[in-house]
Task: inverse folding
């Protein structure tokens, strides 16, 4: 799906684009007022190392949307979500949803069940992650005794999110909201982790986003955006899991690995836009996204 198509949808006005998603409000004479609903469209754009790549991955946006919809159903008894309808314009069928307007918390709610990525790097330096002390002797991909909540402050597109402590988070959103967000994030992760484990997938970590309706009561927290997708989570095949090793994954790690290989000729520290992805990298990345969908949901990909 081209960006031009994604930003020209009859009946809707484009108002925002992130790294992957495009947001619309209903077109009409009241466009200038705060809308009650949004059209959220997941494009086929892919990002890596804080760059939106010049190459798209076919069907990626549909996978993100369909997988999020499936997870919304699995988590409905834990937390409400922002979905109103999937009855969307034909131009974005399968990759869009109509959602409630929310005031979003400026926090990425990250939960880690295994130690890897930036958490592993911080642990090597301090023995802790986001202020949470961890046992000595942990290695790459070690499973943690209990999942830990490690929030991050949201950054602008193209910038790094900033890992913060729970106390920092509480200072930004309030103690009560911080505790509620931590509880919901861990409960959602534990549910998803157990479901995925039954299907041979380890969810090593994930990030969730929450908001509240502008007119909502104090306790009404709503799950939003994407949920337990290959873009927001690390999915590892359980059959090949080996503690102490970097794990193969269902996400865009294949793209990251190619970009940092000599074959790409790209230096991620140069500040230059990454090169076009080769056809085989595009195809293999698409296959990984679809494999994650099929293995988790038990459905055959037919979108």
Result:
């Amino acid at each position: 799906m081209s960006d031009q198509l994604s930003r020209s949808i009859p009946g809707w006005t484009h108002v925002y684009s992130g790294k992957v998603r495009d947001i619309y409000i209903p077109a009409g004479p009241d466009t200038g007022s705060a809308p009650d609903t949004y059209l959220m469209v997941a494009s086929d754009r892919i990002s890596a190392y804080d760059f939106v790549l010049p190459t798209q991955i076919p069907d990626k946006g549909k996978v993100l949307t369909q997988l999020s919809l499936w997870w919304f159903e699995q988590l409905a008894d834990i937390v409400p979500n922002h979905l109103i309808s999937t009855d969307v314009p034909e131009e974005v069928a399968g990759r869009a949803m109509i959602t409630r307007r929310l005031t979003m918390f400026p926090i990425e709610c990250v939960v880690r069940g295994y130690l890897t990525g930036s958490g592993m790097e911080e642990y090597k330096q301090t023995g802790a992650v986001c202020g949470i002390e961890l046992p000595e002797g942990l290695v790459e991909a070690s499973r943690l005794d209990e999942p830990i909540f490690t929030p991050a402050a949201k950054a602008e597109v193209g910038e790094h999110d900033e890992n913060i402590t729970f106390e920092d988070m509480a200072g930004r959103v309030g103690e009560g909201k911080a505790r509620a967000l931590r509880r919901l994030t861990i409960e959602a992760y534990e549910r998803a982790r157990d479901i995925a484990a039954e299907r041979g997938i380890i969810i090593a970590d994930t990030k969730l986003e929450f908001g509240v309706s502008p007119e909502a009561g104090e306790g009404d927290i709503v799950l939003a955006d994407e949920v337990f997708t290959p873009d927001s989570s690390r999915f590892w095949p359980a059959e090949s899991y080996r503690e102490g090793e970097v794990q193969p994954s269902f996400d865009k790690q294949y793209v990251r690995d190619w970009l940092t290989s000599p074959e790409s000729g790209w230096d991620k520290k140069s500040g230059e836009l990454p090169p076009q992805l080769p056809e085989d990298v595009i195809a293999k990345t698409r296959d990984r996204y679809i494999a994650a969908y099929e293995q988790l949901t038990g459905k055959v990909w037919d979108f």
